[in-house]
Structure to design on (953 residues):
């Protein structure tokens, strides 16, 4: 079934993340001796198609935000490749970096922290445009006004400062800034989790609308599976820096394979399925990413754990086309 | 069976004084909580739900004024009790951010010992420790001995929230006020904490005033749900009734805003406009400027909270009309 | 009960506003007097200390000499009035010079960090290890009396406080999401620094600097009072107090009026700085509002 946002047919690959690793050294003492590594992201491979919406779902400590930071080149990966239109961008600088920036933009969780408190709305939205495109003053004004109009903010907002806006309005400003350069990919890092429910719906609708108009790809980073279903074509579930399951969002929701995905889904408090839903509660705390469990990282909390899960990393199993799971339960013997 | 409710709030109005005026955060709110019952206050930011929680716990900020009303707990008026500087032992409050609740300079054990000493008048160190470990076990904390000697920063978010709940329980309260206790937690941890609170309710017969913005969470834990908007109650019903048969247009649209996981929808409904300005609340119905079913009368006359069917109250002219 | 509490809260809010208004008036008039002082003094020769008039010694305040006259028969009012010019020069000079050293050190150390940052902050710490007033006294005594030397001595004892403050602020701001947002927009590093990091990191420092103007005047007066500040007959307030000190028993006005001028100016600056702190930075204003119960 084609999704609301995607084209449905096989898309051209926009971005390919190959074997991505990001380790953060843990330093102690006066001389900064390295005593260990936080393995935030460990051998992660996935792709984002042109015009596709991919969701990266995981809880805190899963490494989802680190992956986003690597894609945005706010962090350089420890190992692995990030191919954008076929070129590895992990080491680029200078003019090529500037080109890449133009194509990959982001919207963050808390708009009051991601907008410079000393700049007004007009300056915030026009800043990237000013730097990347050579526009006259009048053209810049018209361009910026049009951007603000696209996110549903009228003229009266241009002179306002972030602290004068409501959460929803501020997030609209952040979105206007993110789409100002006509990017190919917009990374949405928990774009609605700081907002009220009724405002969350406004913002999700706006994001869907903009995507239809401008046809960029989204990488949605979130812990909230309920917004994922609404907006994405494909879902990737990660746990402690590793992918657990990846598949079209239809299947992830109707037929989740990995025990972790199943538990995540049953944990969402959904008023409409209160009576029919089977609730599985995950016991214990997530293990530390400094010393993640050997072999399958979920085995310490998995209700279906087997001996092999503690000894060997589960290999990728293609359950059906584009639906992969990393779990011994599904391994072909 | 005509029992007196454990907590009864009557006609409560609370203002915050600010430069150049006041914010009428809570206006003429009445409801009650029975023994062993979990009542959820659901609303968005600015709905006044947290202010009510703070008022019951006696923890309102300096610039808040209780304009009118009574908070009757176990037959005694809390506002009157508090003015005589009596400590309230039977109501405890748990906040959203456990890390901000605990002083980073003290171990968890020191904090809970202090609470037990001052509330239960226990002097003996061993006895205090015994009581602390007992409540730690009650909230299913693994390795209570280790936790007793830990500093807050050594514990994860989910564990910290358990610790804070344990501290609240250590005074043997009759009622727990939980102000968005799971909002900062991941979904799987949220499920854990909700499960724990439900267990405590069963085991201890604890009553709860559970404050949340999430209707899903409310329907999971609440016996009864009270929906608030702009400082007023708009609807009150049993959880089942409210979810299956919402009456107030605000409740209805709030439910339609929630993205569902079991069906695919083409567009989410959203409520246009923004939250009301509580410096000058609307004369008529507080929701009238965003309501899709607004009538002329709504802008002029404030609808009262009236019983629509058994145990289902709503404040909306759509329903008062039908009765006539 | 309720009514009373409400009025008390409103009252405290208004008093706060009144105080900031009064402080603004004090500071403004200090600046106005400081700038116009040399041109409006009734007795310019007295003010500059170029003359003396033995017949007019120790005259108590009168219409002709509202603050009385001093041991050399000079008009105290003229000398206090011109003193505001010197205090203004000292305040601006000390704070300006200290900021000129402190801000670049703090920004570079905070933004780039690493080895350069460590070295710069260690140097700062070395200066911070001395008690600031003692350092200023030693420096002033070594450099010798004089206006410029006084300013330099005070500024040297002062800048490390600014560089530490700027360092901490820069470090905080550097990790804010809006800096990530600027990087993603593709802005080059120098632009991020000048457009986003420095303005946001500097607000608290500039507020602190405004507060410190009062203290700079006070410390300069202190140094002059103990004899390591400006040279007589410069009409600097501290020196005036020191000159009038010996005759305090029979001619109180000579030391009293310059002392009062110091007091009012310092208090004015402090109150203004408090008011500024609440309104200059939108984020601070936000937290104040939030503390008042307004969810934003």
């Amino acid at each position: 079934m084609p999704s609301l946002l995607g084209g449905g047919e096989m898309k051209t690959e926009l971005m390919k993340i190959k074997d991505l690793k990001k380790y953060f050294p843990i330093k102690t003492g006066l001389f900064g001796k390295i005593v260990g590594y936080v393995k935030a992201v460990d051998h992660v491979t996935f792709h984002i198609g042109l015009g596709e919406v991919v969701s990266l779902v995981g809880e805190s400590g899963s490494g989802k935000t680190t992956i986003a930071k690597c894609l945005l080149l706010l962090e350089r990966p420890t190992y692995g490749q990030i191919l954008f239109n076929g070129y590895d961008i992990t080491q680029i600088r200078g003019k090529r970096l500037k080109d890449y920036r133009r194509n990959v933009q982001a919207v963050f969780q808390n708009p009051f922290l991601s907008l410079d408190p000393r700049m007004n709305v007009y300056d915030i939205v026009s800043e990237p445009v000013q730097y990347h495109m050579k526009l006259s003053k009048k053209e810049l004004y018209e361009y910026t006004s049009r951007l603000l109009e696209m996110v549903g903010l009228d003229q009266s907002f241009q002179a306002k400062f972030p602290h004068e806006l409501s959460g929803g309005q501020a997030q609209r400003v952040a979105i206007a800034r993110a789409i100002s350069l006509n990017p190919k990919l917009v990374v949405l890092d928990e774009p609605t989790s700081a907002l009220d429910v009724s405002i969350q719906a406004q913002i999700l609708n706006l994001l869907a609308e903009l995507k239809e108009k401008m046809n960029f790809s989204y990488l949605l980073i979130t812990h909230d599976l309920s917004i994922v279903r609404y907006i994405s074509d494909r879902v990737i579930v990660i746990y402690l820096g590793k992918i657990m399951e990846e598949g079209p969002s239809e299947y992830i929701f109707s037929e989740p394979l990995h025990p972790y995905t199943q538990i995540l889904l049953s944990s969402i408090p959904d008023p409409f399925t209160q009576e029919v839903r089977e609730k599985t509660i995950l016991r214990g705390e997530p293990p530390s990413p400094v010393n993640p469990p050997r072999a399958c990282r979920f085995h310490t909390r998995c209700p279906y754990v087997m001996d092999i899960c503690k000894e060997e990393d589960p290999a990728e199993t293609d359950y059906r086309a584009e639906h992969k799971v990393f779990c011994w339960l599904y391994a072909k013997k | 069976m005509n029992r007196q409710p454990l907590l009864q709030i009557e006609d409560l109005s609370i203002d915050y004084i600010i430069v150049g005026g006041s914010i009428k955060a809570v206006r003429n709110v009445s409801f009650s909580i029975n023994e062993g019952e979990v009542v959820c206050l659901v609303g968005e930011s600015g709905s006044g739900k947290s202010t009510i929680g703070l008022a019951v716990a006696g923890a309102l900020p300096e610039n808040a004024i209780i304009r009118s009303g009574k908070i009757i707990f176990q037959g005694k008026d809390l506002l009157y009790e508090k003015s005589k500087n009596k400590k309230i032992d039977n109501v405890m409050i748990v906040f959203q951010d456990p890390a901000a609740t605990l002083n980073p300079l003290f171990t968890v054990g020191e904090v809970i010992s202090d609470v037990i000493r001052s509330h239960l008048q226990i002097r003996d160190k061993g006895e205090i420790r015994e009581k602390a470990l007992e409540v730690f076990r009650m909230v299913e904390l693994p390795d209570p001995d280790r936790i007793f000697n830990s500093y807050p920063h050594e514990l994860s978010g989910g564990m910290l929230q358990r610790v804070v709940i344990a501290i609240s329980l250590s005074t043997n309260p009759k009622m727990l006020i939980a102000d968005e206790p799971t909002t900062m937690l991941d979904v799987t941890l949220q499920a854990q904490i909700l499960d724990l609170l439900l267990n405590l309710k069963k085991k201890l017969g604890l009553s709860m005033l559970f404050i949340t913005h999430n209707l899903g969470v409310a329907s999971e834990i609440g016996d009864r749900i009270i929906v608030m908007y702009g400082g007023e109650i708009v609807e009150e019903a049993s959880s089942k009734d409210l979810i299956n048969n919402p009456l107030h247009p605000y409740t209805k649209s709030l439910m339609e805003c929630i993205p569902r996981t079991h069906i695919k929808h083409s567009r989410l409904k959203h409520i246009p406009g923004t939250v009301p300005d509580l410096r000058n609340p609307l004369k008529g119905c507080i929701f009238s400027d965003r309501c899709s079913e607004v009538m002329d009368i709504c802008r002029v006359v404030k609808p009262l909270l009236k019983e629509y069917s058994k145990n289902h109250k709503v404040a909306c002219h759509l329903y008062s009309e039908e009765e006539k | 009960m309720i009514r009373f509490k409400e009025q008390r809260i409103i009252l405290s809010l208004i008093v706060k506003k009144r105080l900031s208004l009064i402080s603004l008036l004090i500071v403004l008039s200090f600046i106005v007097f400081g700038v116009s002082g040399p041109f409006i003094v009734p007795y310019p020769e007295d003010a500059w200390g170029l003359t003396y008039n033995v017949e007019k010694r120790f005259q108590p305040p009168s219409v002709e000499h509202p603050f009385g006259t001093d041991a050399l028969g000079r008009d105290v009012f003229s000398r206090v009035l011109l003193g505001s010019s010197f205090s203004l020069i000292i305040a601006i000079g000390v704070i300006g010079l200290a900021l000129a050293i402190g801000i670049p050190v703090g920004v570079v150390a905070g933004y780039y960090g690493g080895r350069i940052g460590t070295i710069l902050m260690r140097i700062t710490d070395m200066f911070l290890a001395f008690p600031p007033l003692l350092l200023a006294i030693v420096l002033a005594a070594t450099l010798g009396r004089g206006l410029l030397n006084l300013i330099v001595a005070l500024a040297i004892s002062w800048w490390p406080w600014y560089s530490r403050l700027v360092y901490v602020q820069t470090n905080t701001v550097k990790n804010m999401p809006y800096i990530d947002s600027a990087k993603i927009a593709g802005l080059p590093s120098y632009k991020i620094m000048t457009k986003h990091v420095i303005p946001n990191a500097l607000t608290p420092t500039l507020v602190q600097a405004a507060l410190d103007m009062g203290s700079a005047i006070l410390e300069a007066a202190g140094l002059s009072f103990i004899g390591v500040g400006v040279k007589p007959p410069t009409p600097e307030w501290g020196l005036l107090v020191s000159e009038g000190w010996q005759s305090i028993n029979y001619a109180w006005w000579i030391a009293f009026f310059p002392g009062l001028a110091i007091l009012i100016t310092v208090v004015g600056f402090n109150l203004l700085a408090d008011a500024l702190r609440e309104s200059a930075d939108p984020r601070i204003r936000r937290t104040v509002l939030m503390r008042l119960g307004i969810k934003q």
In short: Residues 1-9 of chain A have pLDDT under 50 and may be disordered. Residues 197-214 of chain A form the longest helix (18 residues). Chain A touches chain B through 46 residues (CB under 8 Å). Chain A has eleven helices and twelve strands.
